[in-house]
């Protein structure tokens, strides 16, 4: 049974950004997000993952021994979407699923036992970075609030499993996207794998951090090459290896910026408006867009839009009337209106002149 977690808001994103140090403008700058091909702002993958793990670990006994948490980011969680989480418990295994407006966005699997306890240090492809990391109670509490951690954070108490991500604050090159040399506008967070061979990290503990980059690879897709890379951080103390934090980042092929299609596309030769449609969901867009809005980069198909609709709202500027027209199929466009009196809810149709200008006129 799914638990409703409420609406993902910009405040949630800003709170997490402050607590984690993740300040990627894709998540709070509308112009930057649109230029990168995203119609809406969306939450950090790790924020959705943190919310999900907080539900999975709601049982106070969960995660006390050696365990591994694998978090996979399936789709984006748009700002304004309704978020829900469900969990399933089995022997030595917990699974969870987080949805945004009914679409599966994040999945998690937590396993415990010998495999987690036996994890070993790895090798990187470049020069490693080292630093010291102290878990301070104030930082841990701020992070716990941001990911909706269900337990109190006290002295010597366990911290949320994804708190390990705040180690970027002590690294000389804190931004993992800059570290791997990816284009920020095209980079997605693919997966997080966290292993604690001796149980969770706790407030007051101090660690030596060793971070390195590994596993660079390329996968061809219909839209070009996708590049993958892993950034790994290992935390150790006098007892040995205490945690391994691995993140997979994906650099997607270049996309046509949405910002280039701010005005409606009108094919005067055939007297029609052109839009695009997501072949999986059937959602129709105008202005046309290249890819789906859920972050999965499905290529949209071109469609013709109706030439008639109802006036939703209108205004005037510099002597010209403008309106929002609701076309059949749920598409709302902004367009110039012909001169005259206008009526909300009235029928309007597309019209043009030989010079190529076009507008909607009261039918």
What does this protein look like?
The protein has 2 domains: 3-251, Roll (Thiol Ester Dehydrase, Chain A); 258-362, no CATH class. The chain is elongated, with a radius of gyration of 25 Å. The protein is built from 6 helices and 19 strands. Helix 1 packs antiparallel against helix 5 (137-146). Strand 9 and strand 10 (240-251) form a beta hairpin. The strands form 3 sheets. The protein has a 10-stranded antiparallel β-sheet. The model is unreliable at 257-262 (pLDDT under 50). By secondary structure, the chain is mainly beta.
Number of helices: 6
Count of domains: 2
The global form is elongated
Instruction: Kindly state the percentage of residues in helix.
Output: 10-25%
Which superfamily, in CATH terms, is the homologous superfamily of the largest domain? Answer: Hotdog Thioesterase
- What CATH architecture of the largest domain do you see? Roll
CATH class group of the largest domain: Alpha Beta
From the N-terminal CA to the C-terminal CA, the straight-line distance is 50 Å
Rg value: 25 Å
Order of helices and strands: EHHHEEEEHEHHEEEEEEEEEEEEE
Strand content is 35-45%
Rounded mean pLDDT score: 85
CATH topology term of the largest domain: Thiol Ester Dehydrase, Chain A
Q: What is the topology, as strand order, of the major beta sheet?
A: 1-3-4-5-2-7-10-9-8-6
Low-confidence stretches: 257-262
Largest β-sheet summary: 10 strands, antiparallel
Q: Which structural class should the secondary elements be placed in?
A: mainly beta
């Amino acid at each position: 049974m799914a638990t409703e977690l409420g609406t993902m808001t910009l405040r949630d994103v800003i709170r997490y950004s402050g607590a984690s140090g993740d300040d990627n403008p894709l998540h709070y700058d509308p112009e930057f997000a649109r230029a990168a091909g995203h119609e809406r702002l969306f939450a950090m993958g790790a924020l959705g993952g943190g919310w999900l793990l907080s539900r999975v670990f709601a049982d106070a006994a969960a995660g006390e021994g050696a365990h591994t948490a694998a978090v996979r980011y399936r789709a984006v969680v748009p700002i304004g979407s309704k978020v829900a989480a469900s969990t399933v418990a089995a022997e030595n295994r917990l699974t969870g699923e987080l949805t945004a407006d009914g679409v599966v966005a994040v999945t998690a699997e937590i396993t415990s036992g010998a495999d987690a306890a036996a994890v070993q240090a790895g090798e990187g492809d470049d020069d490693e970075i080292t630093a010291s990391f102290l878990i301070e109670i104030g930082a841990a509490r701020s992070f716990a609030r941001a990911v909706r951690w269900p337990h109190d954070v006290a002295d010597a108490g366990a911290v949320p499993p994804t708190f390990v991500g705040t180690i970027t604050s002590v690294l000389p090159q804190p931004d993992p996207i800059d570290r791997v040399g990816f284009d920020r506008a095209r980079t997605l967070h693919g997966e997080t794998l966290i292993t604690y061979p001796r149980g969770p990290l706790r407030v007051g503990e101090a660690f030596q951090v060793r971070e390195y980059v590994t596993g660079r690879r390329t996968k061809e897709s219909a839209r070009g090459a996708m590049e993958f890379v892993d950034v790994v951080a290992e935390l150790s103390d006098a007892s040995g290896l205490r945690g391994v934090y691995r993140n997979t980042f994906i650099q997607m092929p270049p996309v046509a910026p949405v910002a280039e299609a701010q005005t409606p596309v009108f094919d005067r030769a055939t007297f029609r408006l052109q839009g695009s449609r997501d072949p999986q969901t059937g959602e129709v867009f105008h202005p046309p867009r290249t890819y789906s809005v859920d972050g999965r980069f499905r290529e949209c198909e071109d469609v013709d839009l109706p030439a008639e609709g109802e006036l939703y709202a209108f205004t005037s500027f510099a002597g010209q009337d403008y309106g929002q027209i609701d076309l059949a199929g749920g598409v709302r466009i902004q367009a110039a209106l012909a001169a005259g009196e206008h009526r909300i809810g009235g029928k309007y149709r597309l019209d043009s002149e030989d010079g190529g200008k076009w507008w909607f006129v009261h039918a």
